[in-house]
Amino acid sequence: MQPRPNNAIQPVFCTIVPPHVLDRLSRADDPLLAGPARRTLEADGARRHHRQATALARTPQAARTSAPVPTKPHRTLYDCRNGTDLPGVKVRDEGDDPTQDASVNRAYAGLGATFDLLITEYGRSSIDGKGLPLIGSVHYDEKYNNAFFDGEQMVFGDGDGEIFLDFTVAIDVIAHELAHGLTQYTANLAYQGQSGALNESVSDVFGSLVKQYSLGQSADQGDWLIGTGLLAPRVSGVALRSMKAPGTAYDDDVLGKDPQPASMDDYVHTGQDNGGVHINSGIPNRAFYLLATALGGNAWERAGRIWFDVLTGGELAQDADFADFAKLTVTAARHRFGEGDEVEAVLKAWSEVGVPTR
What we know:
This protein is α+β, with helices and mostly antiparallel strands. Helices cover 42% and strands 9% of the residues. α5 (193-215) runs parallel beside α7. The strands form 3 sheets. The chain has a 6-stranded mixed β-sheet, with helices on one face.
């Protein structure tokens, strides 16, 4: 397998709520639940097709070398006013005072927190490494049950108020979607099968890291949940996913039970969701959690650095599987920290979830 050249970027359309969740919800008996889910699925399908079509006609941006790499974010927020035309009406630019709209302010803060982690801890200016401006649009569509990164910008729905709340309420959701852009500009992992599950897992990892970083939490203090606060009170669940215990995030009469496996013993073979990219991501998610908590301290300092080094190191193939990624994390840990606790913890974490490293 050969790593994809950096100039062959192929953006994908990535949503925080998996299609299998919306599909089940769309078949609910209650039209208040089924209607918004069905419309969200249709909107996502149309947007995904549009993304694929426009990606073919685009060429990568030329490297911005004429000016110093920015060390501060450039954020612009738009309001779609429950329409679908992107980006919408500009409502807040970088440095502007907070608005009266909490969704705008939360999105602004989440984009900034992601930029801050990347530049402060990893020396990377924005998701492309060159200070790419961060764009977000809130209030997308009516009762839209999702948030997504479309290769160019972030988009947030308001939720239906019955199952999902405003998608800007969870900072890890914001960081998760923006991290798809980080992957797009680095390893550009193919959004299918195990490489697609790795793509999703990397976003969960950085989503959790941004949340812990912004809250000043150590690995032991973090909840390791993705989407805390996103589920409405009527839902029996705590989040969309659990990195600590995949398969336990929700167990609800309408949504069903969280299908994520925690190890390769329960790997899910499916043709849905691009080969289960949102499902099997639970396996590398748990490996990262095991590593971060075994090392202790701040997860972004050692565990996160190892993952970042693999993502940006140029050796990760576009179609890498779990074992490919795992082997590179061992190499990255050894190069970064030498033979010691980090390498041992990496080997043990992958072994516990059943992914080989040799």
